[in-house]
Design a protein that fits this description.
about 30% strand; alpha+beta; Bifunctional nuclease domain; eight-stranded mixed sheet
């Protein structure tokens, strides 16, 4: 089994599916990218952990971590293990100290949990060969800039005043839209 280490490169609203998000993973030691379309709630769970935002109430993945830690179960790694008919499959590799178990999971949930345990994310060579893409440096920079400078609705944050952004940030936090809040916060930080 040839595992390839991945890292999260970006998360942005999907142009191909309304209400969905594109999670882009990249080879740690290569130039291939693995885009995975995920739902809004899973994207939010990943975004708040990446941005280190503490939600008012624990999310499902936080609850999983708390229960696991209470029973001394650790997540060792996540493996995006298969791709069948356009659907990705993943496994959580966990241990209680005595036994190692693999648990089936959706990749989006597995990645949200991996972030909470600081566990590495891997895929198989066959998955990356089939679904991976290679972007030129110019294309990659353009996509990253676009993803960071727009809200999920597609509006450019540069067009808003500082006060408007602050109001938008408060609204996003109140609505628990943590991905949008993180983008707005980043724009505010750029202006300081």
């Amino acid at each position: 089994m040839n595992k390839i280490r991945l890292e999260i490169l970006g998360l942005s609203s999907s142009q191909s599916q309304s209400g969905s998000f594109a999670l882009v993973l990249g080879e740690k030691t290569g130039n291939r990218r693995l885009p995975i379309i995920i739902g809004m709630f899973e994207a939010q769970a990943i975004a708040i952990e990446i941005e280190r935002i503490t939600p008012n109430r624990p999310m499902t993945h936080d609850l999983f971590r708390s229960i696991s830690e209470s029973f001394d179960v650790k997540v060792l790694e996540v493996i995006i293990s298969d791709l069948r008919e356009g659907v990705f499959y993943a496994k959580l590799v966990c241990t209680d100290g005595a036994k190692v178990s693999e648990i089936d999971a959706r990749p989006s949930d597995a990645i949200a949990i991996a972030l909470r345990f600081s566990a590495p994310i891997f895929t198989q060579e066959n998955v990356l060969s089939e679904a991976g893409i290679v972007l030129t440096d110019e294309e990659e920079e353009e996509r990253e800039t676009e993803a960071l400078s727009t809200t999920p609705q597609g509006d450019s944050l540069k067009n808003y005043s500082y006060e408007q952004l602050q109001t938008m940030l408060d609204e996003a936090l109140e609505q628990e839209d943590y991905e949008r809040a993180a983008k707005i916060r980043d724009e505010l930080n750029k202006r300081n």
